[in-house]
Amino acid sequence: MAIWLSGCAATVVIAYLLGSFPTGYIAVKQLKGIDIREVGSGSTGATNVLRTLGKGPGAFVLVLDALKGVLAIALVYWLFNFTSSQNFIPPTVDAQLWEPWIVTLTGLAAILGHSKSIFLGFSGGKSVAISLGILLAMSWQIGLATAGVFAVVVAISRIVSLSSIVGAIAVSIFMVILHQPLPYILFGITGGLYVILRHRTNIERLLAGTEPKIGQNVANEPEPTA
């Protein structure tokens, strides 16, 4: 029992550290020699990298950030398979019941790490790309459906933040429609609300009609630290 619980706790911590790995910060620092937190929105995510370095680096950071989410959830699946094969899971524990809960906790830890990176003084991105990776690993159907909503909205509006917010709302709807386990539904609600909260300055600009579209630059306006 102790080994299994320790493994679950370690997985959550590792997921936070994976999420914390500052992909966008390192990319911009290496390629342009600047701190991306001092440019544009102040976010270390793929959108701000896109505005700073262009499409190639932006896409590269997007993919790597999504992979962080995939790896975090894959680690949970590996843990349950390994502990089950080694009989580390107590007979009184229903692994099929517990796995979705650990997946949810791990996913939330990774999202938190991405936006509050321990390597960057608890600053970071807005957790959109890593959330997509987590969703693809949890349920590829929901991941693809959410990506589809994002793509449609961004194609129409040309505003990444609006597309991210609509996608965050759509996640919970897809979770319910596709009859996902309760922990996954709670992940969709909690993760979606957190992503929207991380976009609060974007929401203010959207309401004011000043949110930049793809290809436009946003004036330096670091994200709130609260």
Walkthrough of the structure:
- With 226 residues, the protein is an all-alpha fold.
- Helices cover 72% and strands 0% of the residues.
- It is built from 10 helices and no strands.
- The chain is globular, with a radius of gyration of 18 Å.
- 46% of the residues are buried.
- Mean pLDDT is 90; it is low at 222-226.
The share of residues in extended strands comes to under 5%
Number of helices: 10
Give me the count of strands. 0
Q: What's the rounded overall pLDDT mean?
A: 90
Q: What's the Cα radius of gyration? A: 18 Å
Strand and helix order = HHHHHHHHHH
Major sheet attributes = none
Distance between the termini: 38 Å
Inertia-based shape: globular
Report the uncertain regions: 222-226
Structural class by helix and strand composition: mainly alpha
Instruction: Tell me roughly what share of residues is in helical segments.
Output: over 70%
